Amino acid sequence: MTPPELFLGSLACCAAYYAAEYLRTRNLAQTGVEVSVTAEKLLQPARLGNFCIQVQSPVPLTVQQNDAMMRSVDACLLHRTLMTPPDVKIEVSAPAMAAA
Question: Which long-range contacts link 51-56 to residues 24+ away (Cβ below 8 Å)?
């Protein structure tokens, strides 16, 4: 997998975790949540954008349960990180060059 694919997979995994926990804690389902995440490659600067997280519940939900699960998935740590981008510091190190 490419790094962007791993990134999207991590976002999907996080959303699935929160959705599954919502269902599990309410004894609605133990397994079967399906999540897909898509994004577009944007330019200037090159990056991913326009994310879409789709969550499929394995069981029927009332309107209230659907809204509550949406709030649970919205609390996903990775989703929240994207919504408030962190500062990212890049450091490069290399071994010292040998004396001539």
Answer: 51/11, 51/82, 53/11, 53/12, 53/15, 53/79, 55/15, 55/16, 55/19
* Phi-psi region at 24: left, alpha or beta (left = phi > 0; alpha = psi -120 to 50): alpha
CATH of domain 3-83: 3.30.300.20
For the chain, the domains span: 3-83
* pLDDT tens per residue across span 47-57: 999 999 999 99
State both tokens at 88: 């990212």
Whole-model pTM: value is 0.88
